[in-house]
Amino acid sequence: MTAVRERTEVTPYLSLLTTMALFGSAFTSAKVVVGELPHDVAAALRFGGGAVILLVLLRLRPGSERFSWRDLTRAGSAGLVGLFAYNFFFFWGLSLAPSLDGVIIVPVLSPVLTTLFFLVTGREPSSRTRVGGLAFGIGGAVVFFAGISGTGGVSGSRLAGDFAFLAAAACWAAYSIMSKKVLRGIEPLRATTYATGVGAVALALVALPSLRGVEWSAVSAGTWANVAFLAIGPTAIAYLCYYHGLRSVSPVTATTTMFAVPVFGTVTSVLFLGESFTAIQVLGALTTVAGALLAVTSERSVMANKENQ
What is the pTM of this model? Predict the structure, then answer.
């Protein structure tokens, strides 16, 4: 019984770690795609493909004929935030700024913003340590932005991209908070499918004007391979794993695991894209991570009592 209980307690974290590994690789892969395709088209292809895969998996599952407009509305609303809005800003940011910027900004600030929401709304305990951690993390983000000048200058394009990444982080925080309620009464596969489907339709509608300008014959095989990878790994598998993990832990805990994304994202960005940090950006990134960890892990024993509320 003890072994079963320990395995049950570990499984959500393994699911979340799998998600973060795939999310980290998505920054590099998506950067390749937006090099040849408009950012809105790239996002639509990624989630259109992911939605098809999830629909097939759902149809193959016993009881797939069960349908509820209420479930579709609940999961779809989360999908509009966590898939449509998040990925619109995510791909837009990648079209303007280096993927390494997104690797730091999105996964580090998402848990900070999630924790800040719970503190402001009184749903998590406040303390000087947690507030100080948030301030420390935000200060590190400011330093990170300041370090842009050492990598080719502070261009308006790159700053716009980084602010798009910041908007993506806010969307992911909101998605994590909304999805916890969505999972009450809906199994992860169905919730993920509905959310991805609605998000994909919204992304496709936004991408329609850009489709006519795409020279499909000029798109390389490598780009199509990356589109396929994004649809299967960082979308269908990653979002399903995230819902599996989020079902058992709080939004704060789930978004905290995003601190693993910079590790995977940095390695792939450096190896496959040849990107690099300035010394100031490294300092800002470390400061942000330290502050964010302090904010979300302090008073852990109190948070644990509220884990599944």
Answer: 0.76
d(CA 99, CA 32): 10
Secondary structure (3-state) at 238? helix
Burial call 2-34: b when 16+ CB within 10 Å, e when fewer: eeeeeeeeeebeebbebbbbbbbbbbbbbbbbb
Amino acid at 59: R
Instruction: For residue 159, count CB atoms less than 10 angstroms from its CB and return exposed for 0-12, middle for 13-18, buried for 19 or more.
Output: middle
pLDDT tens for 88-114 read 999 999 888 888 788 878 887 887 888
Count CB atoms within 10 A of the CB of residue 308: 10
State the Cα–Cα distance between residues 111 and 106, nearest whole angstrom: 9
| Helix-strand-coil split of the chain, %, nearest 5 | 85, 0, 15
| Domain edges within the chain | 15-304
The predicted pLDDT at position 59 comes to: 87
Q: Tokens for 167? A: 């908007």
